[in-house]
Design brief:
This protein is of the alpha/beta class and 359 residues long. The protein folds into two domains: 150 residues, Rossmann fold (3-Layer(aba) Sandwich), CATH 3.40.50; 179 residues, Rossmann fold. It contains 13 helices and twelve strands. The strands form two sheets. Strands 3-2-1-4-5-6 form a six-stranded parallel β-sheet, with helices on both faces. A six-stranded parallel β-sheet has the order 9-8-7-10-11-12, sandwiched between helices. Helix 8 crosses helix 9. The longest helix has 18 residues. The protein is globular. The termini are far apart.
């Protein structure tokens, strides 16, 4: 039966499994939990269960022993094959003999895996939408989510460690990449004749409502580009995002280069890590910049700013809500083509960028 009681201080797990089944940025924001667990249990092996497509966010993390994954494409192989994949994953997890499972996810699938893991201690969140006997039985300890609306996502994740008497503050996010990632990125930059300082601008998101206008991005590029500083545009290898980058380049010819869709996420991390400045919208690369402590200007619209702002100290948020009314985040139709960031003036972003560059 689930209980809010603390776990005895003598508890010293040798094998820990952390579960989070969300998007790329969400995975990066679990890294403070990994740091906290490593500090508290330096002898333990830490594994993470995540979606296959998000593996690059954590694949170079030095404190993770192994990444276990669920491939969302399993369902395309038919019911029988899908069930076999799921059964094999469960078998592997049970055979591993985890002492501690921390379920940061809210899906039934994550609760089933937690329940069947065989771990003595199984921590999860007491989500209101999961208030039933199975969810309670799946976890030995449930942590309240009552104040999650007032917390950043990192802080929400860290509250899962309360039963272990681990402090929920003081842990940074981390994005790691290999030396070969940086060598590849350097070679790619050299092909574009970029051998001097550069700024990374990521104007795209898979959701258009999170994007600024192309014309203002082009104006920003034109304002910041000079002989001493190159402008590098990045984006995911998505047709719509690549088309947006091409349109921006057409509005400011010769002022920027594009590496859109050309880098893996760890390679992109190496690019951002060596940049003078990162400017972007609410997206995984923005969280990467904050985690890498690269100076970061983040443009936000009708997103839950308190929960998704860049986590760190070397950043500035420019919020469209300071310039015009915005709809409530939960009311947004994510398929809308309305660009709510349009209220943000070009001159304010240029000024913020120059303040960083002049430091």
């Amino acid at each position: 039966m689930a209980t809010p009681q603390s776990i005895p201080a003598a508890f010293a797990p040798q094998k820990i499994l952390l579960i989070k089944l969300r998007h790329h940025g969400d995975m990066l924001l679990t890294t403070p939990v990994i740091a906290a667990l490593r500090q508290r249990y330096p002898q333990a092996s830490i594994d993470v269960l995540l979606y296959k497509e998000t593996l690059p966010m954590l694949q170079a993390h030095p404190h993770i022993r192994q990444l276990r994954f669920i491939d969302r494409k399993w369902k395309n192989e038919g019911k029988l094959a899908h069930m076999r994949h799921e059964a094999a994953l469960l078998k592997t997890i049970r055979r591993e003999g985890y002492d501690l499972v921390i379920n940061l996810a809210d899906q039934w699938r994550s609760a089933i895996i937690t329940a069947l893991s065989g771990a003595k201690v199984r921590i999860g969140f007491a989500y209101n939408k999961r208030s039933n006997a199975f969810w309670r039985q799946a976890h030995t300890h449930l942590v309240s989510t009552r104040n999650h609306g007032q917390l950043h996502t990192v802080e929400q994740n860290l509250t899962a460690l309360q039963p272990l008497n681990i402090a929920s503050e003081g842990f940074a996010a981390a994005m790691h990449y290999s030396d070969s990632d940086w060598r590849h990125t350097q070679a790619t930059l050299a092909q574009h004749k970029v051998t001097h300082p550069y700024i990374v601008i990521q104007p795209t998101s898979r959701w258009l409502f999170k994007c600024w206008e192309d014309e203002k991005v082009a104006g920003l590029v034109a304002a910041l580009a000079n002989e001493q500083t190159a402008i590098v545009l990045t984006a995911a290898p998505d047709k719509k995002e690549l088309a947006m980058i091409e349109h921006i380049l057409s509005l400011c010819p010769g002022k920027a280069i594009s590496l859109a869709g050309q880098l893996t996420l760890p390679q992109l991390a190496s690019l951002i890590d060596h940049a003078r400045l990162f400017i972007g919208v609410d997206s995984a690369p923005m969280h990467m910049a904050a985690a890498l402590n690269t100076p970061c200007i983040a443009l936000f619209g009708p997103t839950k700013l308190k929960q998704w702002r860049p986590w760190g100290d070397n950043n500035q948020v420019i919020w469209a809500g300071d310039y015009a009314p915005l709809p409530a985040p939960d009311s947004i139709n994510t398929n809308t083509e309305t660009r709510y960031l349009s209220a943000i003036p070009l001159e304010d972003v240029v000024k913020a960028a120059r303040n960083y560059l002049d430091e």
